[in-house]
Design a protein that fits this description.
Layout: E1 2-7, H1 11-20, E2 28-34, H2 37-47, E3 51-55, H3 63-73, E4 78-83, H4 88-96, E5 101-104, H5 109-134, H6 137-150, H7 156-163, E6 173-181, H8 186-203, E7 208-213, E8 216-222, H9 228-245, E9 248-253, H10 263-275, E10 285-286, H11 304-319, H12 323-339, H13 344-365, H14 372-385, H15 389-406, H16 414-426, H17 433-440, H18 444-455, H19 459-476, H20 481-487, H21 493-504, H22 508-517
Parallel strand pairs: 1-2, 1-3, 3-4, 4-5, 9-10
Antiparallel strand pairs: 6-8, 6-9, 7-8
Length: 518
């Protein structure tokens, strides 16, 4: 709506004009009225109307003097003259002063409406021109950037032509993408606020261009701008703006490029870094200096068997109380998953699944560990909420060290008891003293001597005795010899036969026959 001030020394004329037309339907509203030229000048300074409808003959300052003063103060104000005098001299002066028309009283309603429509068209054109002039070259470039980055790739020549007018075009380019972690509808509001602040900090100084990039805010900077103190200032500003809005603001910068044709490459790099924020440990600002391990872009096929072997090593480390070995094995498992191209969600899910099984096995087979899974359940859930890769690995290692301590009985012969418990639980596996020595972080020869001094048997003898005892139980149930041999860890029946005779003085078949005949 355009503002109108009615100026006439007769109140009835002013009131009649106000009631004569439906002003709003014509695009106007009556913003004020004045009984003299001097009063009208005061309203002009106060209201800044787009249109004044002015009488010619008024006491004191007449209409002509008013128009002259108005044009001095605001050359753009439109003036429509209404006069009861058909004096050509008045009309000529008014036209010379740049009024829109000179109408005689009593004014014809249709004629006045036609004039108002013509003036509105002129005002509309002027407003459109002003809006166009307000748009800076950065704003126009902002629209072009958004369009060119979202559409099919443009040629190098097109990029060069588009960016040639930017003052920093010779300093190289770097794209920064800014994301906001806010609740629901607050995101849109915070996004607008940060856009305005970025424009004030960068566009108005010519140092950058703010543009839309999907859900992100894009910021194109001269490559030389994002260095040292300027980087720290931007990081601090984003953090402060986020705290002010009660949310967290993240930024990811692409690589610097030397020419405009490289802008899409910098944009793609920033986008990839933003998508993989978890692997940068949730850093607030990711750029070339924030190097972290990422999932392999050329992912190899996932090997479940290899993961299973690593999981077994981890289980042995926990069972043997080797706290120092836990973190390196967890790191290796993480590297295995990264190499297979696992993303954040699938990587977390695999780790939680692995840990759940490990703790269940620990609870079922390790005396004293029954409470461990329950006590550590909340920490398993926390892994899903981890904001960064290294943070998650530290949480996993900490959880397993806690599991070790929850199952530690603290006795002087603890390590050997752990070994015998492990043999009792895993006698059917391919257990080797060297493998256990690695898990316990011992020299294998020393561990063998320590084991014999505590148990009275060598490691292999103790393992054989456990296996033969288990085999006897199976044979008593009527299981065939080769089946019992396989189930206790002797895949070769002949080897099993020899071991059984050595410890029991008769063959496994003969032992089985004793129970069949009875």
């Amino acid at each position: 709506m355009y503002k109108v001030v009615l100026v006439d020394d007769e109140p009835s004329i002013r009131e009649g004009l106000a009631e004569l037309l439906d002003w709003e339907s014509l695009g106007y509203r009556i913003a004020g009225s004045a009984a003299s030229g001097k009063e009208a000048l005061g309203l002009n300074a106060q209201i800044r109307p787009e249109l004044m409808i002015v009488d010619i003959r008024m006491p004191g300052m007449d209409g002509m003097e008013l128009i002259r003063e108005l044009k001095k103060e605001d050359a753009g104000v439109r003036v429509l003259v209404l006069s009861g005098y058909a004096d050509f001299n008045y009309a000529r002066q008014a036209i010379a002063l740049g009024v829109d028309n000179y109408l005689l009283k009593p004014v014809d309603e249709d004629e006045l409406a036609d004039n108002l429509c013509a003036i509105k068209r002129a005002l509309d054109e002027r407003e459109a021109q002003r809006e166009a002039e307000k748009r800076t070259k950065e704003e126009r470039l902002s629209e072009r950037l958004e369009t060119m980055l979202s559409e099919a790739p443009a040629s190098a020549e097109t990029w060069a032509a588009e960016m040639a007018s930017w003052g920093e075009a010779d300093a190289g380019f770097r794209v920064v993408l800014i994301d906001i972690d806010a609740d629901g509808g607050e995101t849109a509001l915070v996004r607008r606020q940060i856009c305005e602040r970025l424009k004030a900090s960068y566009e108005k100084t010519g140092a950058g261009i703010v543009f839309g990039a999907g859900a992100s805010i894009g910021l194109l900077l001269a490559d030389s701008v994002l260095r040292d103190s300027a980087r720290r200032r931007l990081t601090a500003s984003l953090r402060d703006w986020g705290e002010l809005a009660g949310c967290r603001v993240f930024a990811a910068a692409g690589e610097g490029v030397t020419d405009a044709a490289g802008i899409p490459l910098s944009f793609a790099a920033a986008k990839l870094r933003a998508q993989h924020r978890f692997f940068y440990d949730g850093a607030d600002f990711i750029d070339d200096e924030t190097a972290r391990r990422l999932p392999s872009p050329e992912a190899v096929a996932f090997e479940p068997d290899l993961l299973q072997r690593q999981a077994e090593r981890l289980y042995l480390a926990v069972c043997t109380g080797s706290e120092a070995r836990v973190a390196p094995i967890v790191e290796e498992i993480g590297d295995l998953m990264l190499g297979a191209g696992e993303g954040e969600d699938s990587l977390k899910a695999r780790f939680v699944q692995l840990l759940t099984r490990l703790l269940e096995k620990l609870s079922a087979r390790q005396p004293g560990a029954g409470s461990a899974p329950t006590l550590l359940e909340s920490k398993l859930l926390a892994i899903h909420r981890a904001c960064g890769y290294q943070t998650m690995l530290a949480q996993i290692s900490g959880l397993l060290v806690e599991a070790i301590r929850l199952t530690d009985d603290g006795g002087g012969e603890r390590q050997i008891r752990k070994m015998t418990q492990l043999i009792d639980a895993h006698y059917k596996d391919n257990l080797k003293l060297e493998k256990l020595a690695e898990a316990f972080n011992y020299n294998s020869a020393y561990l063998g001597k320590l084991f014999k001094s505590v148990t009275g048997d060598s490691f292999n003898t103790y393992l054989d005795k456990v296996r033969i005892a288990k085999a006897k139980q199976l044979l008593q149930t009527g299981l065939k010899v080769y089946e019992a041999a396989e189930q206790v860890g002797y895949p070769n029946p002949d080897y099993f036969h020899g071991k059984f005779r050595k410890y029991e003085g008769l063959s496994p078949g003969a032992y089985r026959s004793q129970f069949e005949s009875s």
